[in-house]
Write a structure and sequence with these properties.
heterodimer, A: about 240 residues, alpha/beta, two-stranded antiparallel sheet, B: alpha+beta, four-stranded antiparallel β-sheet, 3 helices
Chain lengths: ~240, ~100
């Protein structure tokens, strides 16, 4: 049986009560793991969210969204955050940042601009896909980006995203689909999300993988990395220090 | 070989601050399909509301079985109803009404 995962819920602008309602509906919709985007100073909110999630029986992954302006800024930010958050997403606003993020193995998710005109200039192109295929980053498509636009802009975005997914699949780069929900009305059931990918010529099974297998694999890989006995992929301490 | 038409029945729920009537829901669904897929898409999907309960903002919609993903995508693309935020959530799908109701 598939275990569905939504890797991008935004912390709502209201109080924790609104988040609780979002998590309750998500659990009802069949999600087993959710990643919520926090900012750096939200330690108390993370603690409260963990309690809510454990009450509802949902797995929580903490996520941080970076929007660096330069490659240097990205490197500095990632260095300090890798061990604090389970998912690191980078919104690529310039080519330089996009290229650096694609080849950095500490970056999990690549995001691109939400504005259709900007997205047509700055998208997941072939060179980006080649770099990402050598690292661990996945391309993320946010449903909120598509749904937030009117019909004409939606068509432009779908065309760009279709091109991005084609490039990602050609180079074997995983792609994931997230809701990007900021409130209750942004939530969609996992199969409804997957159906949006069929508009981008993705077959049904791969679309379901984008909301289950791929994001789950990412969370599990990162949880493994955050364990104290982890050395590198495939290498871990099996016995303590015996002096 | 059979030429019987196959349908899928989907149980849905509407999240909206307003209580919506059946006619309003039907109009919103048809409009969203036409907006996303055009008149051709609407003619293929053949959506039909089988039942709708305004009190619990939920109901059952029927569509041609091959076009269920397109119906899902169209319903997922509904974000507002009458300038108020809204969401259509498909909760369960079945090949027969009886199984869905059970």
């Amino acid at each position: 049986m598939r275990r569905f995962t939504d890797l991008h819920l935004r912390f709502p602008k209201g109080d924790v009560g609104e988040l609780k309602e979002m998590l309750r509906v998500s659990s009802e919709l069949g999600y087993s793991t959710l990643a919520i985007s926090f900012s750096l100073n939200m330690k108390e909110e993370i603690r409260q969210t963990r309690i809510i999630c454990s009450d509802l029986g949902i797995g929580l992954a903490t996520r941080v969204d970076l929007e660096p302006k330069t490659e240097g800024e990205l490197l500095r930010a990632v260095k300090g955050l890798r061990y604090r958050f389970e998912i690191i997403a980078v919104k690529c606003l310039t080519k330089g940042v996009a290229r650096q993020a694609a080849k950095d193995r500490r970056v999990d998710i690549l995001n691109f601009p939400t504005d259709p005109a900007q997205r047509e200039r700055m998208y997941f192109d072939r060179q980006e896909a080649v770099l990402a295929s050598g690292a661990l980053a996945a391309l993320e498509i946010n449903a909120s980006t598509i749904l937030g636009e009117g019909p004409f802009n939606r068509a432009r975005l779908l065309a760009t995203m279709r091109r991005e997914i084609t490039e990602a699949r050609r180079m074997g780069v995983p792609f994931i689909l997230s809701s990007g929900a900021e409130n209750l009305y942004g939530l969609r059931s996992p199969r409804d999300l997957a159906s949006l990918l069929t508009l981008m010529d993705v077959d049904w099974e791969s679309a379901l993988d984008a909301v289950s297998e791929e994001p789950l694999k990412m969370v599990e890989r990162n949880r493994e990395k955050l364990k104290v006995d982890h050395i590198s992929p495939g290498v871990r301490v099996v016995e303590g220090d015996q002096k | 070989m059979t030429f019987r038409r196959k349908y899928r029945y989907a149980g849905f729920r509407v999240l909206s601050p307003n209580h919506l009537g059946e006619k309003e829901v039907r109009d919103v669904i048809q409009r969203s399909i036409v907006e996303l897929l055009g008149a051709h898409g609407l003619s293929r999907i053949e959506p039909r509301i089988i039942e709708y309960d305004a009190e619990r903002s939920g109901g059952i919609i029927r569509c041609k079985h091959l076009y269920l993903p397109l119906l899902r995508a169209s319903l997922a693309s509904i974000t507002t109803i009458g300038e108020k935020p809204a969401a259509f959530l498909i909760l369960k799908v079945s090949g027969s009404l009886r199984a869905l109701r059970n």
